[in-house]
Design goal:
Strand order of the largest sheet of chain A: 1-8-3-6
Number of strands of chain A: 12
Radius of gyration of chain A: 19 Å
Helix content of chain A: 40-55%
Largest interface: A-B, 56 and 56 residues
Oligomer: homodimer
Distance between the termini of chain A: 45 Å
Shape of chain A: globular
Chain lengths: 249, 249
DNA sequence: CGGGATATTGAGTTAGTTCAACACAGGTGG
DNA sequence: CCACCTGTGTTGAACTAACTCAATATCCCG
């Protein structure tokens, strides 16, 4: 079914705000509003800063394609990657709600972003509450990711952290169709992974090496492969919920 | 598990959902809706579990008074406190959005919570989009807290972490009128602080001791005192944003 | 007054860090 | 086409911040 050509480059039917259509159909009016809500598209090159800590952007973004990451820095240069940004993620809400960004977002690959005007956000809520609800849903989902990361960084060992982040990326990647067999493209360096896990680069490397030698994962030329998914999952030390479910066998 | 709520005692004029009235007046209709939205009140005793990881509560809560904490656990007992819960916080949204709770919430003191029915959430969005907007605002604010914590746990040293969490608690406490002079009641143990900072109990204690001996803070009989706020702030190693702002003096 | 929970302290251990050197790949200009 | 350069990955060695274990002190509550 070919999409009719319009002014905007990407059809809003693909918009993540519409994502929940699995549960709820988006009405034609809603779709029309989404299209009007959209200001345009923004193509970010790898390495580009999309949002900067301390700035006040008038924009909201939706990621249509590509990878990026959200991070915060300390004055002396240390930085913590808060989470990786993938298609379907909603960016800049904090700027709208809190006025000023408290974190930065940088592109890892070329990214295509759908741009919204921040001041239209309110009209979205008032005119199309269902879409407002969806935004809350997205916010809630991203908070869940953060919770998981915090648990990892705060309480998991190095091996567990690496195992967990791989499992997590594959889980997100699968939902987005980014996984082929047991392989997924990961367009970041070990430094990025280290910054995401709150570890040093060297130790991240040594940990990865250990997992490679145990034939559990492989990370070559930009692709991570889960060689032994079972062992990997076991190492990942899942949260108490998962643990609760297991004993029921 | 929460006991069935009773009839409402607290006027909804004090509701955190109305908090943003500084910026925006709440209309009488909205207030009426809030009161209808409210199912009742829930009094939680210290140590009570308000929400449990893996469960599906039909409730949403707003904290009217008292302290609690949100946490996640690992199967072997390690646990990470995600953040402390104070009056004005909104709880359980994840359960509504994601169907199942991915974290637990426990009371530290007696807590008074305003209870909402989850299934009314949608009618709140559709009928009173401004309130829906407020919920998004709350979600966004709590995500900011999480970002800060993750930066702390991932990249700050032990002293910095302790300094930062104290500064942070005072900042939140001030907004809520919980700070008297330089003192604030903190109804938790060093174990809680350790779990929040991703550190061991012993090392947390030793770090606190160091800060006490340097006459920077004092923690006695349930009260933390900022003895030398300036030094404490300096130790806290604020984020890059704060650093950007300082040179402007 | 007793007992359990909390806090404090010392000693020994270790997971993770920093430093430093080297390997390797891709990309550029001569 | 090669020589070089820069970014990335790999590895060893030395160091240290934070951990665990364990004993003792202190507080709080009934």
């Amino acid at each position: 079914m070919p999409t009719p050509p319009r002014t905007a480059q990407t059809p809003c039917r693909a918009c993540p705000l519409k994502k929940r259509e699995v549960f709820r159909a988006v009405t034609p009016e809603e779709l029309a509003f989404i299209e009007e809500f959209k200001t345009g598209e923004f193509i970010a090159d790898p390495g580009a800063t999309i949002l900067a800590e301390g700035s006040k952007t008038p924009h909201l973004f939706t990621v249509l394609s590509g990878w990026g990451f959200r991070y915060k820095g300390l004055p002396d240069g240390r930085r913590q990657i808060l989470n990786f940004v993938l298609p379907g993620d909603f960016l800049g809400l904090q700027g709208a709600a809190l006025n000023e960004m408290q974190h930065s977002v940088e592109a890892l690959t070329t990214m295509v972003l759908c741009v919204f005007a921040r001041e239209k956000l309110w009209s979205l809520y008032s005119g199309y509450p269902s879409l407002g609800y969806d935004i809350t849903w997205l916010a809630s989902r991203s908070e869940r990711l953060l919770d998981d990361n915090l648990l990892s960084v705060g309480r998991r060992s190095a091996v567990e952290r690496v195992a967990y982040v791989v499992v997590d990326l594959f889980s997100r990647g699968r939902q987005l169709g980014l996984v082929t067999g047991q392989k997924m493209r990961v367009p970041f360096t070990q430094q990025h992974m280290a910054d995401a896990l709150g570890m040093s680069l060297v130790h991240t490397n040594k940990t990865l090496r250990k997992l490679t030698q145990s034939k559990i994962i492989k990370w070559q030329s930009g692709y991570i492969e889960m060689v032994d998914e079972k062992k990997l999952m076991a190492l990942a030390a899942h949260d108490a919920t998962a643990a609760q479910l297991r004993p029921l066998i």
